[in-house]
Amino acid sequence: MARPPTYYISARGVIATVYQRMKFEAENGVERVTDARWRTSKAVGVSERTVTRILKQKRESDSTGAVLRSPHKMKKPRKCLRRDIDNFDMAVVRRTINNFHKEYKQFPTLKSLKKILNEKINYKGCIETLRRLLFDLGYEWINTDDNRRMLSEKHDIQMLRYKYLKQLRKYREEGRNIVYTDESYIHTTHVQNKSWANENGSIAQKKISKGLRIIIVHAGNKNGFVPNACLIYKASSTTGDYHDNMNHENYKKWFKTQLLPNIPKKSVIVMDNASYHNTFAEKVPNSNSKKADMQEWLTYKNIEFREDMKKIELYDIILKHKDNSKNYAIDAIAKENDIDILRLPPYHPDLNPIEKIWGVLKNYVANRNIDQNYTSILNLINERLAMINVTIWDKTCQHVEETENKYWKDYDDEQEFTIYVGDSESDNDTSSFYDSDENSISSANKEH
Question: Would the pTM of this model clear 0.85, i.e. be above it?
Answer without folding.
Answer: no
